[in-house]
Amino acid sequence: MGDRCAGARKAKASRQTPGTAREPPPGPSADPPARGRQAAKAGRGNARPPGEHDRAPRGASPPVAQGAKSASCRKGKESDLREVGSAPGESDAVLREKGAAPTGKDPAPREKGAVCKPKETAEPLPLASYSCLGADSCIGARWLRDVLKTLSLGRADTSEASGLVNQLINTLVPVIKAQESTFSSIESLGTGSYYEHVKISAPNEFDIMLTMPAPRVKLEPCEQGSGAFFYARLKRNPKRYYLNKYLSEDKTLEACKMLSALRKIIKEFVKNTSGKHAGPDSDVTVDKKKVGSPAITLRIGTLQQEISVDIILALEVRSQSWPASTQGGLNIKKWLGAKVKQEYKWKPLYLVPKHAKDGRMLKEDTWRLSFSHIEKDMIKNHGNTKTCCESEGRKCCRKDCLKLLKHLLDQLKTKHGNKRGLDKFCSYHAKTAFFQACVLWPDDKEWLFTDLESCFQKFLDYFLDCLNKVYLPHFFIPTYNLFGLIDKASSEFLSKEIKYEINNRFPIFKLQN
Q1: Backbone dihedral angles phi then psi of residue 218, each to the nearest 5 degrees
Q2: Which of 98, 102, 393, 481 to pair with 255, CA 20 to 30 A apart?
Q3: Which residues pair with 316 in a beta bridge?
Q4: Helix/strand/coil for 317
């Protein structure tokens, strides 16, 4: 009888004891979750996640059955506080003050009244955990937008730089035409990130292709070229032909000789004019020749900045179908449409004088396929609905994600220099990954600007997958692996660095400040 009375008294006391007050889990934050008293303060006042019960009236504490888990004990939420069998009257804030820390994993069954112990070390939350699923007020998304603002080009600087480059090229091209009959029909074509409107930080790099119509040529694949490198042999050989002086015995166009002849003319031009044609307050110089590079690099020095201009000779091949190695490439039917693909396939091919690698040896007189003109058009007209990012259309974040990846690679190179092979990775790798990602997610709705954070995470996930496999296929030539000459150690190091940046919310971006 006494036992029964004692049990009744305990039950009555339990009913009269106030329940544990629930607190909503901390919302998205620009920093990793706080601990102790700071965590308790951070959790106050935030809205409940979808699926939880309505908030209790102000001042009221809804009772919680003894031994029940609080709403913050759901699996998969790193910022949740686990409260299994908490003692009556102890709130989430009290538990935090005692040192309870989020674990992100369901704990093993505990005895009644036990409280989770804090981890000795806590991993930073992955970027995906902060995703706001398109909310304009998301702190992380606003932060990424602030980074993008620092990457935008100043209007005054851009106008000045482009003016200097245009003045130089407009003066140089007529000189080249007059000096060498072989180059009498060249025309300039702007390519690269500046003309694609994805240049970041400063307008200090320009790529100019000097295109010249090529005769009917037969493209013979180079064995070490993976479908990207070819020998160009004339189908016909008139006696008085302007390219005769650059033909080998087997009628193959000698890329090395043509590039050297163009370089000689440009150096002579710079020497005679002292660079005055670029502007009254500027000086022009020519960089030393880089082994295997198809570019002749000019540098325009001004009081404010130095501008590099890569001049690339390109043979324009028309009235000829694309090589067999391009079959399966340019997979844009679901992204830009079959009609657009057909239009691109009718555009001319360009061949640039680039040496193919045979182990440690370089093969001279090889030409590499170039699709710079099509790449520029795809980036500028990147939406599958023809109004994407136009005045009457919705803004997407495709180009913004590309800029962020380019900036990430640049900052990592600044931090580590040429250590661990980071110099082997370039902006063209980022651009190719961008095209592949646009094919994987072709719909404009999958790249809404309001979803910038989650889209950038998705894009990085694809790039990390390429690094892990050490395989990034050329967008136009699927048989050509752009990571083919990159060793596994360099790829793993870059992958590790990117993962660290993701898990710590990109501290590398703060270097620019």
Answers
A1: -105, 120
A2: 481
A3: 213, 350
A4: strand
User: Within its chain, how far is the Cα of 256 from the centroid?
Assistant: 33
The answer to whether 421 and 493 are in contact (CB under 8 A) is yes
At 232 the three-state DSSP class reads strand
What is the dihedral sign for C-alpha 402, 408, 411, 417? negative
Domains of the chain: 23-42+64-107+116-125 (no CATH), 148-512 (3.30.460.90)
Q: How far is CA 180 from the centre of its chain?
A: 41
CB 266 within 8 A of CB 311: yes
- The mean predicted confidence, pLDDT, of the chain is 77
Residues 271, 313, 227: CA angle, nearest 5 degrees? 150
Place of tokens 């759901």: 74
Which candidate, 52, 64, 82, places its Cα nearest to that of 20? 64
User: Would you state the structure tokens that stand for residue 329, as one six-digit string?
Assistant: 């490439």
The Cα–Cα gap between 78 and 75 comes to: 8
DSSP classification of residue 396: B
End-to-end, the C-alpha distance of the chain in Å comes to 76
Going from the C-alpha of 212 to that of each of 261, 280, 458, the distances in angstroms are 14, 31, 41
Burial 397-418 (b: 16+ CB within 10 A, else e): bbbbbbbbbbbbbbbbbeeeee
Residue 83: is its pLDDT beyond 90? no
Does residue 178 surpass a pLDDT of 80? yes
The whole-angstrom separation of Cα 110 and Cα 78 is 20
As a whole number, mean pLDDT of residues 233-252 equals 78
Spatial CA neighbour of 144 closest among 404, 415, 437, 409: 404
What DSSP element (H or E) covers 331? none
Structure tokens at 381: 């007209």
CA 322 to chain centre: 28
Contact 346, 295 (CB under 8 A): no
The residue-averaged pLDDT of 313-337 equals 92
Q: What percent of the chain has pLDDT over 90?
A: 52
How many Å apart are CA 97 and CA 139, to the nearest integer?
26
What CA dihedral angle connects 345, 186, 363 and 492, to 10 degrees?
-60
CB neighbours of residue 158 within 10 Å = 15
Residue carrying the six token digits 């087997």: 250
Q: Which amino acid is at 176?
A: I
DSSP classification of residue 450: G
Q: Cα dihedral angle (32, 33, 34, 39), rounded to 10 degrees?
A: 160
Report pLDDT for 243: 81
Q: Do the beta carbons of residue 207 and residue 310 sit within 8 Å? A: yes
Using alpha carbons, select from 248, 440, 228, 199 the residue that is nearest to residue 326.
228
